[in-house]
Design goal:
Carbon-monoxide dehydrogenase medium subunit; anaerobic carbon-monoxide dehydrogenase activity; 264 residues; Uridine Diphospho-n-acetylenolpyruvylglucosamine Reductase, domain 2; FAD; flavoprotein; FAD-bd_PCMH_sub1; Enolase-like, domain 1
């Protein structure tokens, strides 16, 4: 691991100032991906700006028909929140199924979204619910946030501050997980709410994506049977030692049907 300067600001303003002044700085959320990359020599930042002490980036509140979660809120805190469990149980269940206890304790929702791992769970919830990502500069709609493999709409050194999830009438997330990492080989989030029916898939492609054919089928008939009648093309999907593109394509409508049944 390379030498670097370590900073622990107390406010978003201080964090923004420190990261903008670093020649090659990185923001540190939970560190579940960044620190591993540094150990492998895949990342060599000049500075680490640790956001763990920035209180304004933590917390959960339900307001105005949405759940707003601070970017530095851990997966474990989301899973354990009685407010989330009541208002948006699908999101609490998703958070409870991320990684293992250590990952859920340290990992943060903002870090997960900024990293945009192709098999991460939170991107499916953000896109599947039509959420809004807040930064210290602006707001970004879910449909505009995810750009590709580990790529988002965030500008260099832009800080995710919170995520607002609109409350759906129905929602659920089901994933077929890789047993060692517990990442999603395929994960499907379905919702029926203010933005209509949305179906978001993680783990199957280079980045999270929506499946229009499933959304149309479920808009006409909210049932597992409607999902069974949809065929998802394998072109462009991931293929690796864990699952082929064809297998992932097959799983998408199957898991969507299970999610619809779970959502009720």
């Amino acid at each position: 691991m390379n030498n670097f300067d370590f900073h622990r600001p107390a406010t978003v303003a201080d964090a923004a100032r420190l990261i903008s002044g670093a020649p090659d700085g990185k923001l540190l959320g939970g560190g579940q991906s960044l620190l591993a990359s540094m150990k492998l020599g895949l990342a060599a930042p000049s500075d680490l700006v640790d956001l763990s002490q920035v209180g304004e980036l933590k917390g959960i509140r339900v307001e105005g028909g949405s759940v707003r979660i601070g970017a530095m809120t851990s997966h474990a805190a989301v899973a354990a929140s009685t407010e989330v469990q009541r208002a948006l149980p699908a999101l609490a269940a998703l958070a409870a199924g991320i990684g293992d206890r250590a990952v859920r304790t340290l990992g943060t929702i903002g870090g997960s979204l900024a990293n945009n791992d192709p098999a991460a769970c939170y991107p499916a919830a953000v896109l599947g619910l039509g959420a809004t990502v807040h930064t210290e500069k602006r707001t970004i709609a879910a449909d505009d946030f995810f750009k590709g493999l580990y790529e988002t709409a965030l500008e260099p050194n832009e800080i995710v501050t919170a995520i607002s999830f609109p409350l759906p009438a129905k929602a659920a997330y089901v994933k077929f997980r890789q047993p060692a990492s517990r990442f999603a080989l395929v994960g499907v989030f379905v919702s029926q709410g203010p933005a209509g029916v949305r179906v978001a898939v993680t783990g199957a492609g280079p980045s999270v994506f929506r499946v229009t054919a499933l959304e149309q089928a479920l808009s006409a008939n909210w049932s597992a049977a409607a999902c069974a009648g949809v065929s998802v093309p394998a072109e462009g999907l991931n293929s690796d030692l864990h699952a082929s593109a064809d297998y992932r394509a097959h799983l998408i409508p199957v898991l969507a049907g299970r999610a619809v049944t779970q959502a009720g």
